[in-house]
Design goal:
Layout (H helix, E strand, L loop, with lengths): L6 H13 L6 E5 L2 H9 L7 H11 L4 H4 L6 E7 L4 E8 L11 E5 L4 H6 L4 H10 L2 H6 L2 E13 L3 E12 L5 E9 L7 H14 L4 E2 L1 E8 L2 E10 L2 E13 L6 H10 L1
Parallel strand pairs: 4-11, 7-8, 7-9
Antiparallel strand pairs: 1-3, 2-3, 5-6, 6-7, 9-10, 10-11
Helix pairs in contact: 1-2
């Protein structure tokens, strides 16, 4: 028997069906439509209506009846199109997953013990470990400092967005950077939506700084994958990827150091 859809899936599928016609590659809708959809479906509207959109932009796959309309090699995404307005858009299928064949670079773990004692395997724990171990500096080769986390702001043409954490940094030549960071833990996934909106935001808010978008993902056992992401022809591409394992300093051997020297 097919699995019964939950409220979020039923509502977003109903919105899609109300607008989509065969051959369409994009269309816009408003958040107010959710109430009408819930009434038509005779289901209770979620208290946090915005979470319906958030869940399908960053956490969960869209319902099968939406995915099935996408041609091979394409997928539907939801992007902001203004205040409380969104756009379904058909884009090239793109899954950013950590490579299995990369070297795991051991980094002396500088996370305070009390943080390790209470941290959960989620976005906030990942952001803390990246911050305390200065992994942005190590990964990008710049001196970077956290400016703000969970930055909520409005971007022209997109609407309200939230950046997990934003850093500013400088390199040895004096060039300055703004670095939006995504943290991916649990079932969250990398994608074109958050990367593109983070970059657009930084271009608008920090026009004099070079933007370098970074995404970090837990891989387990204090192993963290770091990606530098860029937009190319409307697609998210990986400019570089490194894997860092946080360990006691005493566990880093001479052989490890010799290996790292050869890999430069």
């Amino acid at each position: 028997m097919p699995r019964k859809q939950n409220r979020y899936e039923a509502i977003i599928a109903h919105v899609f069906a109300n607008h989509y016609s065969e051959g369409m590659t994009e269309f816009e809708f408003e958040r107010d439509e959710f109430e009408q959809c819930a009434q038509s479906l005779k289901i209770k509207l979620p208290k946090n209506v915005g979470d319906v959109i958030y869940s399908f932009r960053y956490r969960n796959d869209l319902p099968e009846q939406i995915q099935s309309t996408a041609p091979e090699g394409k997928e539907w995404i939801i992007v902001g199109a203004g205040r409380a307005r969104y756009r379904f858009q058909l884009v090239k299928l793109n899954r950013i997953l950590p490579r299995e064949d990369l070297i795991k670079v051991k980094i002396p773990d500088s996370t305070p013990e009390i943080i390790n004692a209470y941290a959960l395997n989620d976005e906030q724990a990942l952001l803390a470990k990246v911050r305390y171990n200065r992994l942005i500096d190590t990964f990008l080769g710049v001196t970077a400092n956290s400016l703000q986390n969970h930055l909520r702001t409005t971007v022209d043409g997109i609407g309200q967005i939230e950046i997990d954490e934003i850093y500013v940094g400088v390199n040895r030549h004096g060039q300055q950077f703004v670095i939006p960071v995504q943290a991916k833990g649990g079932n969250d996934k990398h994608g074109v939506v958050q990367t593109s909106q983070d970059i657009f935001c930084c271009e608008q808010k920090f026009p004099d700084l070079a933007c370098r978008a970074v995404s970090a993902q837990f891989m387990g056992d204090d192993l963290i994958a770091m990606f530098e992401l860029v937009m190319q022809d409307g697609e998210v591409c990986v400019a570089q990827e490194k894997h860092y394992r946080l360990v006691p300093a005493s566990s880093i051997t001479k052989a490890d150091l010799e290996l790292y020297a050869r890999s430069e």
